[in-house]
Amino acid sequence: MAKTYNPSMKTTLPGEKAAKILERRHHIIPDGVGYGVPAFARQAKGALIEDVDGNWFIDFAGAIGTINVGHSHPTIVEAIKRQADNFVHTGFNVMMYESYIEIAERLCQLAPGTHPKKAMFLNSGAEAVENAVKVARKYTKRPAVVTFSRGFHGRTLMTMSMTAKVKPYKYEFGPFAPEVYRAPYPYGYRKPDSLSEQEYNEETLKNVKHMIEQEISPDRVAAVVIEPVQGEGGFIVPDKDFVQGVQAFCEQHGILFVADEIQTGFARTGDYFSINHFDVVPDLITVSKSMGGGVPISGLIGRAEVMDAADPGELGGTYSGSPLGCAAALAVLDVIEEEKLNERAQTIGNRVLSRFNDWKGRYDCIGDVRGLGAMCALELVSDRDEKTPDKVLTGRVLQEAQKRGLIILAAGVYGNVIRVLMPIVVTDEELEEGLNILEDAINAASSQVN
Ligand SMILES: Cc1ncc(COP(=O)(O)O)c(C=O)c1O
To answer: Is residue 2 part of a domain?
Structure first.
């Protein structure tokens, strides 16, 4: 399958074959399991996906940030095949395998900080966050966990409790896990006009500290869990001083600083770990998504003495850090290094932000443009002065993009942010074409009468 992209939507969506499968889906799959595109994949390569009706899409969603190295990268496919030929699963808690050790060694080497580190592996992002909390509580002997407004950490009971946004993540799914507290996180675009950026960041940091001091007491807090750049929350890049201030406060009070790098890691922001942009060394780091290049795997990396707090048998899981996941993750690290994907992410990000800023000058509906590396977003508003979130327009843009063969996602607590998570192996031609389609979609959606 060698294909250079030229727009080739052969059908409206869903196509004839997809419509039939969709009908079956509605009978047998609960509606609560959502989907973005009314189509079913046939094959995918690099930044392109073909559906069962022969429509080719440019993929700016990358399975929600999972496919940084591209769909079915040959190095990764080869690694998975080789592993499957040898053995598929033995269960690391039963009969171990060397690849688990090797991926731990490589990630501990790459992770920020020169202190001794250890790593363990799991299946999903949520499971990595769950284990960060377990380990942090065990080490500190403290119960409380602090997360942030607009934060997203998963859909299991603990991580749903840590996640901020009520709809669709929490609504009527409570009661939630206790001892989870929420601190404010800066949102530069929506800061009060009366404050300068610096004042706003200082004020937000002050409020984080006050909340912990007045509502919990620092000596009861095991961990502060933070996304260095908020993902589901709307691709919000915090101020460096803010992140450093939070870390310093944690250090002062023996609270573990946990960076949730599940969406930001593995070259997305131009680094293996986005926290490096903030010159902060976390005590624990959670990783997943693009770590496995599409094979489910997640990890927890951290200070050796913290990671060693749990006794034998207290951590693990049947499929945790599976051989296929470890083989894929090792191949992902090779690809990032060999194809210089950290550098490429920066180039892509510069190109995307330059187009977005150009559009901001021409489309009133674009209130804000922001990003770090190739983690870029547009925030859509119905009134620029009031910054009124425009979720309806955002939905229309996504639909217009899909019709034209571009898969792209929304984010943000108001559902009005368009985010790009394209594979970082996207070619220049595909990138330009994808951006052209997005501009057409914004044009078409914003000229529709309400
Ligand atoms: C920052 C962050 N943490 C945790 C998760 C949960 O990961 P998973 O869906 O693999 O459980 C996500 C998923 O989007 C995420 O973006």
So the answer is: no
Pocket test for ligand 1, best of 288, 290, 297, 319 (most atoms within 8 A of CB): 288
Q: In angstroms, what is the span from residue 311 Cα to ligand 1's centroid?
A: 27
Q: In 10 A of CB 12, how many CB atoms?
A: 12
Q: Which pLDDT does position 6 carry in this prediction?
A: 55
Q: How confident is the model at residue 1 (pLDDT cuts 50, 70, 90)?
A: very low
Atom of ligand 1 nearest to the CA of 260: 1
pLDDT of residue 8: 83
CA of 412 to the centre of ligand 1 (A): 14
Binned at pLDDT 50, 70 and 90, residue 392 comes out as: very high
Q: What is the pLDDT of residue 448?
A: 78
The parent domain of residue 246 ranges over 75-338
The pLDDT score that the predictor gives to residue 129 is 98
For residue 7, pLDDT beyond 90: no
* Protein residue whose Cα sits closest to atom 10 of ligand 1: 125
Distance (Å, whole) CA 389 – CA 103: 42
Which of 122, 133, 152, 375 is the pocket-test mutation for ligand 1 (most atoms within 8 Å of CB)? 152
Do 307 and 163 lie in a common domain? Answer: yes
Dihedral (C-alpha) 290, 101, 153, 63: value to the nearest 10 degrees? Answer: 20
Q: Whose CA is nearest to atom 7 of ligand 1?
A: 125
Domain count within the chain: 2
Q: What is the whole-number distance in angstroms between the Cα of residue 450 and the centre of ligand 1?
A: 34
What pLDDT is recorded for position 378?
98
User: Does 352 lie in the same domain as 333?
Assistant: no
Question: For 298-354, what is the HEC assignment?
Answer: EEEEEEHHHHCCCCCCCCCCCCCCCHHHHHHHHHHHHHHHHCCHHHHHHHHHHHHHH
Q: What is the reported pLDDT for 450?
A: 56
37 Cα: distance to centroid of ligand 1 (angstroms): 20
